[in-house]
Amino acid sequence: MVVFRFDTALETTHGKRAFLRIEGGVERVAIPGYRQPHTLPEPQGHATTGPKAAPNTVEQSRKRQKGSRAAGASGQAVSGGRARRKATRPDTTRKGALPDFTIIGAQKCGTSSLYHLLRRHPNVEPSRRKEIHYFDIHFDKGIGWYKSHFTSASRGVGRKVISGESSPYYLFHPHAPKRMAAAVPGVKLIVLLRNPVDRAYSHYQAAARHQRESLGFEAALEAEAERLQGEREKMLADESYVSFEHQHFSYLAKGIYVDQLLDWSKFFHDDQMLVLKSEDYFERPREVLKPVLDLLDLPEWEPETWETRNKGSYEQRIDSDTRQRLSRYFAPHNERLYDYLGIDFGW
C-alpha cells in the first residue's frame, strides 16, 4: 500500500513514498459499531434540534433491492490473508471496457473533487457517470451493465487513455472487495481518508439535506447502533440484500478506517492502493496530484483552474463537547490506523 502525507513539520520530503509492510498480518480488534453495536463514550441526551424531514420521508426513501446474481462470478475463493494476483489489463474486446482505476472512498472525504479533477486530464476518459455503484448496490445488473459505463473508443490511437470511476461506498461495503477483485484484479485503487469526526458530521449534514435523516446529530449518533444492528449480518447472509441503514446511517462506523483497509488488503496488492489524507488534498491539491498520476502512470499535468466539489457549508458547527466525545471515541481506532499505515495523520 502506498501512503502519502505532506507534512513539513515531520520533516518528510514531498512526494516521498512510504510502503506499508505487513509482517504476519494485523490482528483484528472487535470494533463497536462496525462488527457489532457501539456506544459513544459519555453518552448525552438526544438532541431536540436539528434538520427535520417530513414524518414519513425517511421511511418512504428506504429501498430493498433483490437480485439473483452472486458475488465472485469467477468462482475463485479467497481466504487466509491476501490473495496474490497478477495485474491484468482491462478487457476491451467487447463493447465497453473495464476501469483502470477506482476511487473507492471514503464517503465525504473529497472523492468527488479528486474524480472531477482526474477526468479533466487529457489521458483520462471518465465513466458515463461518476458513481456507478456496481460492486455494492447494482451488482445484480451484471458485468455487461457495468462495462456499458465505459468506452474503449479512443484506446490505441496514438496515446494512452485510461478510464475510471468513483463510488465511495465501495470501501465500506462487505462484498465490494472480492467482487472487484474477481472482475478487475489489476485495477488501481485510490482512498481518501478524512478526520473521522469531520467526516461523520459532513455525512450527517448530507443525509439531513437530502431528507434521509430526521434526527439531530447527537440523536442520530445515539441511534446508530440500533439502526445498524443485524444489517451487516443480513448482507453477509444474502448478497442480494441492499441495506439502506448500512449505507446511510453509518456515521461512526464508516470512520473506523483500519478494518475497511484490512478487508481490501486481502484481495489486492499493496502497490495497487494509494491512501491519501483528505486534509492534504484540500489544502495542497497540486502536491497530492503527483502521487496519483504516478500510481496511474499518467504524464505530469496541471489543470488551468482548481476547484472543490460538493464542499459543504453548515449553518451550525458541531458542538464542542460532541467533538471532544467523538475524538475520544475514534482515538484508539485512529491509532490502529496509524500503526497499520506507518504514518500518523494527526487526527
Detailed description of the structure:
The chain is of the alpha/beta class and about 350 residues long. About 30% of the residues lie in helices and about 10% in strands. It has a seven-stranded mixed sheet with strand order 2-1-7-6-3-5-4. Strand 4 (about 125), helix 3 and strand 5 (about 160-165) form a beta-alpha-beta unit. The longest helix is centred in the C-terminal third of the chain and has 22 residues, at about 320-340. It is globular, with a radius of gyration of 20 Å. The protein starts with a strand and ends in a 6-residue tail after the last helix. The model is unreliable at about 5-40 and about 40-95 (pLDDT under 50).
What attributes characterize this protein structure?
single chain, about 350 residues, alpha/beta, 7-stranded mixed beta sheet, about 10% strand
Say how many strands there are. 7
Query: Which ranges are low-confidence, i.e. pLDDT below 50, for 5 or more consecutive residues?
Result: 5-39, 41-94
Strand order of the largest sheet: 2-1-7-6-3-5-4
Shape: globular
Measure the end-to-end span: 20 Å
Q: What Rg, in angstroms, do the CA atoms define?
A: 20 Å
H/E series, N to C?
A: EEHEHEHEHEHHHHHEHHH
Share of β-strand residues: 5-15%
SS class? alpha/beta
Total helical segments: 12
Report the sheet with the most strands, covering strand number, pairing sense and barrel closure.
7 strands, mixed
Average the pLDDT over all residues and give the rounded result. 77
* Fraction in helix: 25-40%
Secondary structure layout:
Blueprint: E1 2-4, E2 18-19, H1 57-61, E3 101-105, H2 111-118, E4 124-126, H3 143-147, E5 162-166, H4 176-183, E6 188-193, H5 196-209, H6 217-228, H7 231-237, H8 244-248, H9 257-265, E7 273-277, H10 278-283, H11 285-295, H12 320-341
Parallel strand pairs: 1-7, 3-5, 3-6, 4-5, 6-7
Antiparallel strand pairs: 1-2
